[in-house]
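tool_call: predict_structure(chain=1)
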Amino acid sequence: MRCCAAPVISIRDPGALELVQSLLRQGISVRIHVSGGSMQPQLQGGELVEIAPLAAILPRLGEIIFLLDRQGDPLVHRLIWQRSQNGVPHLLTKGDACACFDGFIPAEQAAGRVLRIISHSGKTTDLRTPRERLRAALIVCRALIGHALRKAAARL
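tool_result:
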C-alpha cells in the first residue's frame, strides 16, 4: 500500500487553483499533475509534482516554482533571475523548452517550490539533491548566456 503525504489535485477543476493556493498559504504541500511541454525535458507533461509552500523564503535561482503569471494563470517554471523593483522582489521565470522569459513577476505571485517529480512509472526525482541542483544551475546559465548572445547579435 502506497501512502501519499500530500493530496493530488488537478488545478483544472473548478475552484482547485484557489484551493491549491490556500493549502500552500497554510503551509501544506500539494501534488498536482502538470501538463504541456514548456519544461521539457525535465517535465514531459502528465507527471505529478510535489509543491511545498514558499513561506517567507524566496526561491533559489534554478528552482522550479509554482506561480501565477501576469494573467493569473498557474505556471510551473524555473526561476532564472531575481531583482528588486521599488523595494519589491520580482522573479524572472522561464520554461526550460521556451525561447523567451515569462517576464518579471512580483514574488508574491509565487506560492510554492517543486520538491519532487513523480514520473508516470512511479520513479521519484528529488530536486534538492546535489546532482539536481547542479543541473538546475547549468540550465540557468544556459538561459542567461543564450539571452546575452541574442542581445549581442541584435546589436551587430
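agent: The longest helix spans residues 130-155. Proceeding to next step.
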